[in-house]
Design brief:
The chain is of the alpha/beta class and 252 residues long. The chain has helices at 2-22, 32-45, 72-83, 104-117, 119-122, 145-155, 174-185, 215-226; strands spanning 53-59, 62-69, 90-97, 125-131, 134-140, 162-168, 195-202, 205-212, 233-240.
């Protein structure tokens, strides 16, 4: 009798496991007030952003950042930090760079000094053009990861309002690019994205598909792809969902 009862219990337990496994992930929708407070708290405790004059408003899970920051890089950092809050579906960055209006010649001169001091950037043949605070990066880098250093370095210079990346990377065929990205963006990647990402590549143009739990994971996937040799362009079609993605992902 005991053995029979045990087998019945095992059957019921197994059935419950099946139900749990196939039941769709529950939706979570935090109120705009909670989202707004979470972003504000993250900005306040940030070492680099805590003293900045940044206002946050959230309407229907869409955040707007406004205020002034010293450089474009700080504006990017604020947007990335806000994007780490799960439940947001959009962040509009309206932060104003307080150093706007600086002369193009002064920006170009400082950019040249910054790039010369950087070990990674000084080894590549890069050209810089500045027009009304808009920086254009041209040339070929020895490794695609260097383009990320160049973009961030340019954005950190006072007076820069926009960075256009026209840098060329070492060539790679589509199959190599796809295999590399599948490894970097997959569930076992050390990047541990809260996302399920599918990659397609055609003539160096990478399309990112799938679902992400946070805006940060969506933009992080694009940044990772930019650091791969042979990538010419990225089409980011990852959807940000207000629930757990529909496949197994790693949650750090």
């Amino acid at each position: 009798m005991l053995a029979r009862d045990s087998s019945v219990h095992r059957s019921i337990f197994g059935a419950l496991l099946v139900v749990v496994a196939i039941w769709p992930a529950p939706a979570f929708e935090l109120s705009d007030h909670v989202l707004e407070r979470e972003i504000a708290d993250r900005l306040r405790v940030s070492r680099s952003l805590g003293t900045r004059d940044i206002d946050v408003t959230v309407t229907e899970a869409r955040a707007v950042l406004s205020g002034t920051v010293p450089t474009l890089l700080v504006a990017w950092e604020a947007e990335q930090l806000a994007g780490r809050v799960a439940g947001l579906i959009e962040v509009t960055n309206q932060l104003v760079v307080s150093s706007r209006g600086r002369s193009d010649s002064a920006i170009r001169r400082e950019l040249g000094e910054v790039f010369r001091r950087s070990v990674r950037l000084s080894e590549d043949e890069l050209t810089l053009d500045v027009e009304q605070g808009r920086v254009s990066l041209r040339g070929r880098v020895k490794n695609a990861s260097t383009r990320l250093v160049a973009r961030d370095s340019a954005a950190g210079v006072a007076g820069v309002l926009q960075v256009d990346d026209g840098l060329e990377t070492p060539p790679a065929d589509d199959e190599t690019i796809q295999a590399t990205l599948e490894k970097l963006l997959g569930p076992r990647s050390h990047h541990q994205l809260r996302a399920s990402v599918h990659v397609t590549v055609q003539e160096g143009v990478v399309t990112l598909l799938g679902e992400a739990l946070r805006l940060f994971d969506r933009s992080r996937a694009e940044r990772i792809a930019l650091g791969v040799n042979g990538v010419r362009e990225i089409v980011n079609a990852i959807d940000v969902v207000r629930r757990s993605p529909s496949v197994d992902v790693v949650y750090p």
